[in-house]
Design brief:
Blueprint lengths: L7 E9 L4 E3 H5 L6 H8 L3 E3 L7 H16 L8 E5 L10 H9 L5 E5 L5 H14 L6 E8 L9 H4 L4 E10 L6 E9 L7 E3 L10 H5 L5 E3 L1 H22 L7 E6 L4 H11 L10 H4 L6 H12 L8 E8 L3 E8 L3
Parallel strand pairs: 4-5, 4-6, 11-12
Antiparallel strand pairs: 1-7, 2-3, 6-7, 8-13, 9-10, 12-13
Helix pairs in contact: 3-4, 8-9
Bound molecules: acetyl coenzyme *A.
The site of acetyl coenzyme *A (ACO) has 23 residues, from α2, α6 and α8.
């Protein structure tokens, strides 16, 4: 659908990953698991873990600074800051506010957006629509999560899967028609809430001695249920957004999927008929960083090993708790 004031595009990226590494070999000493199991089932070799005592904003601020420095943009020019996260520093005030203050982005408003692994793509869509509306010129979108703060390192079912990290992108209006963020298909289905959640710490079951004793503040996941839905739904919305734009897998230069499990990524790529050489994968290095996986992938293809060119079609896709999922189609400009 044509946008009255033009599309948004990703002008710059930044990231922060903590220095601390937790390898599969380290986990072998903590729970009944093996490097072989973890690599075969998930593709993960190691994950980064934030130093205890530091919150989400520590990473988000650093990713944001790098992003703005790369574009040589003064924080005072930011209109809005959106942080996709489920592990904010505190339930409120928002992490976005802490980022605003640290950057000195005095004109900006902002908020946190909670949608687990879909948090970044949902935030990106909201930010893009702020630009498309003509109301905003510069929107900073961050995906940042400290999953180590909500993972039980005695539970082998979940502790091997997650890591910490942050990625940021700067959105501006694209100077040329036909480029930038073109389209999206997003969904949420609350019937999936029972399969992937944190049971306590919200208004229904506030924190108590009992909830702590019963480990109800940690991630609970029925891995098989999540796996099945993730493969089906990520592929369905990806095919839908491509079809809506008269494209197919062959037209894509790169597929940028949420990094939850290498097997999920491979299954989606197969349904889209995209060879793995056109799929961005870094789950081996960072594991599932929840809201940060897609911006960390963008950093890899824009900065670490640049392999994206003007005119390339890219498709991002994510699936997470909610259930929530979606895909975004963009055509690279610059
Ligand atoms: N090491 C060794 N064995 C393990 C481990 C481990 N770390 N974890 C589980 N096992 C065991 C299980 O106990 C089970 O044993 P059993 O058969 O004796 O009961 C066996 O391995 C097989 O378990 P499965 O659940 O069948 O393993 P599966 O192949 O499904 O892989 C996994 C599990 C990796 C969790 C997978 O289901 C998965 O990736 N699910 C989706 C994750 C995801 O996409 N999450 C979404 C985003 S998260 C978010 O939004 C917060």
């Amino acid at each position: 659908m044509p946008t009255p004031y033009g599309n948004a595009y990703i002008r710059s990226v930044g990231r922060f990953v903590p220095a601390g590494r937790l390898t599969n070999q380290d986990l072998e000493k903590m729970v009944d698991t093996s490097d072989e199991w973890i690599r075969a089932r998930t593709g993960i070799r190691e994950r980064r873990i934030l130093e205890p005592g530091l919150g989400n904003s520590y990473m988000a601020i650093r990713a944001a600074r790098e992003c703005l420095e790369r574009a040589d943009v003064n924080p005072i020019d930011l209109d809005a800051i959106i942080v996709g996260t489920v592990t904010p520093d505190t339930p409120f005030a928002s992490t976005a506010g802490l980022v605003q203050q640290a950057l000195g982005a005095r004109r900006a408003w902002g908020f946190d957006l909670s949608s687990a692994c879909s948090g970044f793509i949902f935030s990106l869509t909201v930010g893009a629509q702020m630009i498309e509306s003509g109301r905003s010129q510069k929107v900073l979108v961050i995906g940042s999560d400290v999953m180590s703060s909500v993972v039980d390192y005695a539970d082998r079912n979940t502790c091997v899967l997650f890591g910490d990290g942050a990625g940021a992108v700067l959105l501006e209006r694209v100077p040329e028609a036909g480029y930038g963020i073109l389209d999206f298909v997003h969904r949420v289905d609350g019937s999936g809430a029972e399969f992937l959640n944190i049971k306590a710490g919200g208004s229904r079951m506030p924190a108590s001695i009992e909830t702590v004793k019963n480990k109800l503040h940690f991630v609970f996941q029925d891995g098989r249920q999540v796996y099945k839905r993730a493969v089906t739904e990520m592929a369905n919305v990806s095919l839908q957004v491509l079809a809506n734009n008269h494209l197919n897998g062959k037209d894509l230069a790169l597929f940028v999927p949420h990094q939850a499990n290498l097997r999920i990524i491979e299954a989606c790529a197969a349904r889209l008929a995209i060879g793995m050489d056109r799929v961005v994968v870094n789950i081996d290095r960072y594991a599932n960083t929840n809201g940060a996986t897609i911006p960390l992938c963008l950093y890899d293809i824009c900065v670490e090993q640049p392999r994206v060119n003007k005119g390339d079609y890219l498709l991002m896709s994510a699936f997470g708790a909610g259930f929530s999922w979606g895909s975004i189609l963009l055509r690279w400009w610059q």
